[in-house]
Design a protein that fits this description.
alpha/beta; 30% strand; four-stranded parallel β-sheet; membrane; transmembrane helix; single chain; FBL15-like; 10 helices; disordered N terminus; F-box-like_dom_sf; 2 domains; transmembrane
Length: 493
């Protein structure tokens, strides 16, 4: 018998029921559902298929998998062959990752997937295609997925033609990312109720070729539109819609005139509108259930241009009399010397119960701006303060005499927040700009009951304990103080 390094080399038998060295193959004796569970842990369909060399018992097990994952580099012909040979009663999840995949490569397996899939399709393509434009790469014809429940397409600007007919009967989730749309069928036609009667969540991000978008849906609950720069007209009629996010849309400088939007969503609960807004062209219907509003960031210091941007951002919250939770983002530009304090142009806010204040101070003092916002919303019951440190501003040091120190009257002016019961602060680093505001919060909130502090990830345990003792000295016996070093972000949902 052949020996290697003093040990016997045993031969692997592939006979059914025979294990290594002629012993009993107990692994192959397991029920199919257990073997399928083992192969699913691989999350790699080609590797799962190669396990057929272990024993005859394994040769068809991979074809019974309810989930198929094809990693980067998988030959599209193998994907097509695997889908053709697949014998599971239902294919509930298909994941395909590609690098610089062309429409022809995807077309080799996508129609088969449309017929077989009864669950989730996730196709993610990466790579630059050597700088070729989407039009030069050709277009992928998307088949109708009649039985799929979720489709995620991240195509890295591959051209996509939507199916002109067919009903996505069971589709509840659709995500389109980095896609170049081509006609003749429009996205509006595909995602509205006649062809997507079960659609509940729709996300459209960085999709080109979408100048006008209209959706009429009776089932839609969540809609996110992000980075649709050339979008000019938006019409939404969604009787069940609860969450709407419109982020960085209508931003193409070549767009002529104001963006036109008409939103009819009577059940809307959360509105995140961080895009251009003008009440004469962006129309919201009655939204009696609205609970949470987020608007464009406000520039704390700047010139007339930024003052004009703030004016448009402030018009949206003024559209409402009461907002349970208002998320306000304060943004500090790099100071160049010709800026002025813009916050005083904010003269009115809705009645707010919970204020989420997100501060991107870039090393500047943010006491004056925060004071002004709190003065405008003195009836709040909860304050959630998120201190954001951008990577490019970590090395920034605010210079002596910086305009951010003005106006300084916030440090001495009286302010009473009689209803404020809870304060949560995330990202605290204990800087000279942070602690004065925190100390004054304890004085302004006369009925404060609970304070939660989440230190920035950069704070060591020893520094955290030092800050903890300092913050406790600001507090009163009736206030419950909680501290954490976990980092992360506050949930505004």
């Amino acid at each position: 018998m052949e020996r290697t390094r003093g040990h016997r080399r045993r031969k692997l038998s592939v006979a059914a029921g025979v294990g290594v060295g002629g012993g009993e193959d107990r692994l192959s004796a397991l029920p199919d559902d257990v073997l399928i569970h083992i192969l699913l842990k691989l999350r790699d369909a080609p590797v799962a298929a190669r396990t057929s060399v272990l024993a005859r018992r394994w040769r068809r097990v991979w074809a019974l998998l309810p989930e198929l994952h094809f990693p980067v580099g998988t030959d599209p012909d193998r994907i097509r062959a695997a889908l053709t040979a697949h014998d599971a009663p239902a294919l509930r999840h298909l994941f395909v990752a590609g690098i610089e995949a062309t429409p022809e490569i995807a077309a080799a397996w996508l129609p088969i997937a449309a017929r077989r899939l009864s669950g989730v399709l996730h196709f993610k393509n990466t790579g630059g295609m050597n700088g070729a434009s989407a039009g030069e790469r050709g277009t992928l014809k998307l088949p109708c997925f009649e039985k799929a429940t979720k489709v995620v397409l991240d195509l890295h600007s591959i051209g996509l033609t939507l199916p002109p007919s067919g009903v996505f009967t069971r589709l509840t989730d659709l995500e389109l990312v980095r896609i170049q749309l081509h006609g003749p069928c429009s996205l509006s036609d595909v995602v509205s109720s006649p062809r997507c009667p079960s659609l509940r969540r729709l996300s459209v991000c960085s999709v080109r070729g979408l100048e006008n978008f209209t959706i009429q849906s009776e089932s839609l609950v969540q809609l996110e539109l992000r980075s649709l720069h050339i979008l000019q007209q938006l019409n939404i009629v969604a009787l069940s819609l609860q969450k709407l996010k419109v982020f960085l849309c209508f931003t193409n400088p070549l767009n002529e005139g104001q963006p036109v939007a008409n939103i009819s969503a009577p059940q809307l609960v959360t509105l995140d509108w961080r895009s251009a807004y003008d009440p004469s062209s962006v129309l919201f219907g009655e939204m009696p259930n609205l609970q949470q509003l987020t608007t464009n960031p406000l520039f704390v210091y700047g010139d007339d241009i930024f003052s004009g941007l703030n004016h448009h951002s402030l018009m949206l919250p003024q559209h409402f009399h009461h907002i349970r939770k208002f998320i306000l983002i304060l943004f500090y530009l790099q100071v160049r010397g010709n800026e002025r304090f813009l916050m005083e142009e904010m003269t009115k806010l809705p009645n707010i119960t919970i204020l989420g204040l997100v501060v991107l101070a870039c090393g500047h003092s943010f006491g004056a701006s925060s004071f002004h916002v709190l003065k405008m919303s003195s009836g709040i019951r909860e304050l959630m303060l998120q201190l954001v440190t951008r990577s490019e501003s970590k090395a920034f040091v605010c210079q002596p005499g910086c305009i951010c120190a003005e106006p300084s009257n916030w440090e001495t002016e009286d302010l009473v927040l009689p209803c404020l019961k809870e304060v949560a602060i995330n990202g605290l680093r204990g800087t000279e700009h942070e602690l004065p505001l925190v100390e004054r919060l304890f004085k302004w909130a006369t009925t404060l009951e609970r304070v939660t502090i989440i230190f920035h990830d950069s704070i060591s345990e020893s520094n955290g304990e030092e800050f903890r003792q300092l913050l406790l000295s600001f507090s009163r016996p009736a206030i419950c103080m909680e501290f954490s070093h976990c980092g992360g972000s506050l949930s505004f949902d």
